[in-house]
Amino acid sequence: MEVILLERVEKLGQMGEVVRVKPGYARNYLLPQKKALRANKDNMAIFERQRAELEALNLKRRQEAQGVAGQMSGVRVVLVRQASEGGQLYGSVTARDIQEALKDAGYKIERRQVELNSPIKSLGSYTVRLSLHPEVSIEAGVIVARSMAEAEEQHAAEEYFEEPAEEDVDGEYEATEE
Q: Which positions carry the signal peptide feature in this UniProt record (predicted)?
């Protein structure tokens, strides 16, 4: 089935492109979400009349998303979960859990904006991509720990290893006499 994209769709195309997709994808996702129109002469004419309006709306949404991205830069959430001695979680951390933690931190993020390939099943520190707009995404830190104290230890260890090594400004090292 051929459709006209009304906005940029990741891994598919840009606004205004006519693309061929499977009928189920069009019927169940693109058309109901108003991300596309069926490709025919009437819809092409409708799209061309609305193109400037759609581009302005897309620009406004992108600017809003960039503003939110600026506020959220460096955001890190902590999720406290029960785990075995080996670090395996009893259960898992999903996109919904991350979305709820971000919501509790004061950010308005939907579950579908959290891009998590598979649920997190062990303790540790992770980087998760948040897609705020088809053209704007950021990375958020997620720490999964048994307690807040353990999470703070993980965070402190990360900061220690991320600090650059100190060198002399000229790149020369001074020898010390003993």
A: none
Domain that holds residue 96: 74-162
Instruction: Kindly give, in sequence order, each residue whose CB lies less than 8 Å from that of residue 10, ignoring residues fewer than 6 positions away.
Output: 131, 134
Specify whether 91 is located in the same domain as 16.
Answer: no
Rounded-to-10 torsion of CA 64, 69, 75, 78: 60
Cβ proximity of 62 and 133 under 8 Å? yes
In a domain, 177, yes or no: no
Q: At CA 167, angle to CA 166 and CA 170, rounded to 5? A: 150
Residue 145, Cβ density class (10 Å: 0-12 exposed, 13-18 middle, ≥19 buried): buried
Q: Specify whether 66 is located in the same domain as 127.
A: no
pLDDT digits (tens, 9 = 90+) for 11-62: 899 888 999 999 999 999 999 999 999 999 999 999 999 888 988 988 998 9
